[in-house]
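job 3f2a | input accepted
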Amino acid sequence: MRGNRRLHWRRYRQIIGVLVSNGFGLLLEQLGIFGYLHLRHRKLDPGSVEAAANARLSVGERLRLSCEQLGPTFVKIGQILSTRPDIFSPEIAGELEKLQDSANPFPFADVRQVIESEFGQPMEDVFAWIDPEPIAAASLSQVHRAGLPTGRTVVVKVQRPGIKAGIETDLSILKDLVGFVVNRTSYGDLYDFSGMMAQLERTLMNELDFRKEGANADRFRRNFSARPSKDQAQGVSVPVIRWIYTTDRVLTMDCVVGIRINQIDELEKAGIDRSELAIRLCQDIVFQVLEDGFFHADPHPGNLLVGEDGRIFFLDLGMVGELSEKKKKVLSNLFIGIAGKNSYRVTEAIVDLDTLKRRVSLRKFEREIDHLLDAYLSIPISEIQLGPLIAEIFQLAYRHKIRIPGEMTLIAKVLITLQGITEKLDPDVNLLVIMQPLAARLVRRGFSLEELGNDLQRGAGDMKALLQQAPPILLGFLQKLEEDDYDIRFDLKDIDKVQKHFDRISNRLSFSIVLLAVSLIVAGIIVGSGLAAGNEPSLLRLNAIILRASLVVAAVIIVALIISIFRTKKF
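job 3f2a | predicted structure (571 res):
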């Protein structure tokens, strides 16, 4: 990464300078960033720190200002981080939500250059006409109305020139800094910086590939058409992608006219039933999460239009979430546990989501979940706000070092956003009440004969793979045994303690053997001398002298052995 730092040194200094100017210098110093980059804190405009402190800005406000000052990449990063209620407090997440994905429009000449570069022909040969005035300009792209040669009116989304290179530079710098924090500081054990960095990179790079956004739209349309009821299938939609006019940097879709879902007065004038609209929106997002396992990850009011016929159009499908079958079931158990105020079920669901699978104190965690749910015992289920509650549960899990997958925290953010929209449309509509039947159905479906058959089929596939892979592995092992081409190593824990224990045993055994030997010798001398001496007084005196000498020698040997054993302190 040293070469990377030399190449982008000015941007490194700019990023660190903006963070320092907004009052994050002490944090950077604690992380060791200044030493890592060989920067001096004092050279990075400390006067602005005092200005920020005097203005008494909150941490969230200063973090939002930093993202705005650092440009499009950090605006997107701030928006993505606002979806992590498990890490950031509601105040900080709320400030990051205020980051507007808007920017000054870039010149129409640049729009022409991008289109002609992508299609390899003059812009007039691609589109019959295109409005020079953009409908909207964002950090990554801007949108123009245009006409196809067939006469159809479309919307053309054009990527901002040079934005991809700038984002790749910023991501490279952030990966370098995150790698330092994870590998060389204790903070890496507290937060999943690497996981957050991977999520940021994946999300940003996906949003830069307009073909992926188009593919997401097609997948949503297929899922919508598979809804169980005709009303649900016809009640939601996405703009049709015109693939002939779409590339990595240009996205062309049908033009959709409608009312933003938070424009209550306009909805009233159009005669749209707001309560029915709120229920339909909740039902479809619940279906996206629990049934499809593929959901819109940023359903804010700007991305939701209501057509004249009441259909809900989902726009801007660059940011999506995806769940496996297992995670859908775990999430359903979590929702059912919350609805039933069952702390054990909630705890089991959270632990099943843990990406690290480390041992945690489940009893303590369950007690804290129990206390959290107790606060909702006096509240009817119809009044429980599901999004904030899940965010609190995820925060609690994080404090217990349980790592929640990024897509799950994304769901918490989606539910919080959805809660805000439905409250404006109809405060009586409750997300948990709508979600509970579908979650229960998904759990019951896991015990159906069809699902059990699918599980058996998947298990049979695993067994087949095991049977295929086991023989060559076993054969290779046996060949190594035959050729003596193997090493056997034992890793004994606390080997020093084991060795000391054996030393004590051997010393005691030696001591016992010496005592036994001396006793036998002395006994033999006594018996032998008694038999040989008979009634001769001179032999008796000689035997007595020999006996005394033997006892003295034995005593000396025993004392010496005792001293040597106690010197080693292993007795």
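job 3f2a | Residues 46-52 have pLDDT under 50 and may be disordered.
job 3f2a | closed
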